[in-house]
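pls ignore typos typing on phone
uridine-5'-diphosphate + seq
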Amino acid sequence: MSRIDILGVPFDNMMMDEVVDYAMNCCAGRSAAYVVTPNPEIVMSARENRELMEAIRGADFVLPDGIGVIYGARILGSPLQERIPGIDFAVRLMERLSYAKSSVFLFGAKPGVAEQAGENLKERFPGLVIAGTCDGYFTDDAPIITAINEAAPELLLVCLGSPKQELWMAQNAGKLKVGLMAGLGGSLDVFAGVVERAPERWQRLGLEWLYRLIKEPSRIGRMMKLPKFVLCAVKERVTR
Ligand code: UDP
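k done
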């Protein structure tokens, strides 16, 4: 499996099918492997936050979530094969887990959201077992870890936003009896129907970020990291 370094973050250069096959193997094991899905904003944060960078580098696979990462890789002269949005990866994986009658635990988002997401996912993937849910606003890890270990799911979705989710997975992997964990930001909000994802045409054009910005203008501060990311990539290419 080849990795491509983008401003210090080692991205896996894989196609979606390969990633899903690999993830299914992790789910079958009990090694609490974990997946991170950085976008340019997370890459820029990791450059300023050593703990976050270490959590990302410690992941079993690092998927290029944002279209910006794909452009960054091109600018750096080492293109990635495919963009792999975390939410699409999760859907593909849960489809396979559903055929295998395997289980998922949904962790994160505001109270009630994970439960609603669970109901919707169960309807969409009838074979999938919803092993448990827990919201993402907590003060103590211990009862959450106990609940997850009692459920012992093949897959654990950790949707706490970045950097909380990456740090949580890195810190707790050793204590968890799960196959695979995936840090997926606001995906539970989408599965619950609380947040609407960009229409497919916008996604295909690589404009999902613009759609989100129009829907949630308060994201502008976070998104200012995108031009900085492009500038850094250009600078690195030139100095190389
Ligand atoms: N969240 C959480 N606990 C926290 C902070 C955030 O569970 O302490 C959840 C929040 O409710 C939302 C998700 O984490 O569901 C973050 O979503 P965001 O849109 O910021 O993530 P993105 O998809 O942009 O990575």
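Residues 108-110, 136-137, 159-162, 164, 185-186, 188-189 surround uridine-5'-diphosphate (CB under 6 Å). The first strand starts at residue 3 and ends at 6. more later
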